[in-house]
Amino acid sequence: MRELFEPLYQVLNHVLPGQVSYGKKENLDQSDTYIIYQEISNRGSIYADDKVQMRILTMQINMITKEKNLELEEKLEVSLSLAGYEFNMLTEYQNEDGSINRVYEIKMEVL
Fold first, then answer.
1. pLDDT tens figures, 2-60
2. Cβ(103)–Cβ(65) under 8 Å?
3. Domain region containing 60
4. DSSP state for residue 95 in the 8-state scheme
5. For the residues of 64-90, what is the DSSP string, one character each?
6. Taking the alpha carbons of 67, 70, 75, 78 in that order, is the dihedral positive or negative?
7. CB-CB neighbours of 80 under 10 Å
8. What pLDDT sits at residue 106?
9. In this structure, what CATH number is given to the domain that contains residue 8?
10. DSSP calls for 18-44
C-alpha cells in the first residue's frame, strides 16, 4: 500500500511543504494551515472464485486553514488533477476555533 500513499503524500507536500501528516496532526509545527490525509475504506469490488480481484481504496484529505483560502484550495485541486487524481470535494465547515476544514475524497482502484 505504501506505493499508493507515497505519491499522494508528495503531491500534498508540494502544496503545503512540511505541513502534511497521515491520520493526525503530528510532527507538524504549530501552523494554523495543514493537511491531514488518511485511508477511510478499502473494499472489494470485483470477485472471481471467491477472491477479491480488485479493491476500491478511498482516501480522505482534510485541508485545515485559519481562514478561507481560495488560492490554496485552487493549488491543491490543480495539483491533484495534474497528478492524475480524480477527487471530489465533499464538504467544508468551520471548526470550533473558527478555522476552516475542507474535505476531499479520492477513490483508487487497486488490483
1. 677 899 999 999 999 999 999 988 777 778 899 999 999 887 767 777 777 777 889 99
2. no
3. 2-110
4. -
5. EESS--HHHHHHHHHHHHHTT--EEEE
6. positive
7. 19
8. 96
9. 3.30.2000.30
10. T-EEESSS-S--S-S-EEEEEEEEEEE
Tell me the longest C-alpha to C-alpha distance in the chain: 52
**pLDDT greater at residue 85 or residue 28:** 85
| Contacts by residues 26-35 (CB-CB < 8 Å, ≥ 24 positions apart) | 32/64, 32/65, 32/66, 32/99, 33/63, 33/64, 33/65, 33/66, 33/69, 33/72, 34/63, 34/64, 35/61, 35/62, 35/63, 35/64, 35/76
Q: Say how many domains are in the chain.
A: 1
List of residues 6+ apart from 22 with CB closer than 8 A: 5, 9, 36, 37, 38
CA angle 67, 72, 73 (to 5 degrees): 90
pLDDT of residue 45: 65
pTM for the whole structure: 0.87
What's the rounded Cα separation, in Å, for the pair 10 and 101? 21
For residues 38 and 59, give the distance between their C-alpha atoms in angstroms, rounded to a whole number.
6
